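Troubleshooting log. The previous structure file for this entry was overwritten by mistake, so regenerating from the original sequence record. Sequence copied from the archived sheet and checked twice against the printout by T.R.
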Amino acid sequence: MFTGEFFHSFDEKGRVNFPAKLREELGEQFVVTKGLDGCLSVYSMEKWERMSEIVDKLPQAKARNLKRFMFSSATVVNPDKQGRVLVTQTLRAYANIAKDVAVIGASDHVEIWDREAWAQLNAQMDSDEIAEAMDELGF
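Regenerated output below.
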């Protein structure tokens, strides 16, 4: 399970220091792709392969746009010796990331957010809505 909130900055080459705790859980290689809500999603190779198999079993009519969204910009990354990963310009542009980011654990995957967008999303979260969801789940 991925947890935590970490703040980093991209360097001039498009690399970001990826938190050691998350790298350990993700493995030596992992996938960065477009996420929902304007962030980037990061998956372990194992999770990525399971998701790919599920999507491949869907009827083409249902899966075509999902496949395009998920796979067109997906990149397999290998952290360097300093723990940095290279995120493509296409992915950084999709998530409107200029420099400063929040890297967060999101249970079964990791997300990379523009730091300001992450702050705005947190400010918009409604505690009543979250409490209602927790009640529905029996927490």
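The chain has a mean pLDDT of 95. Archived copy saved in two places this time.
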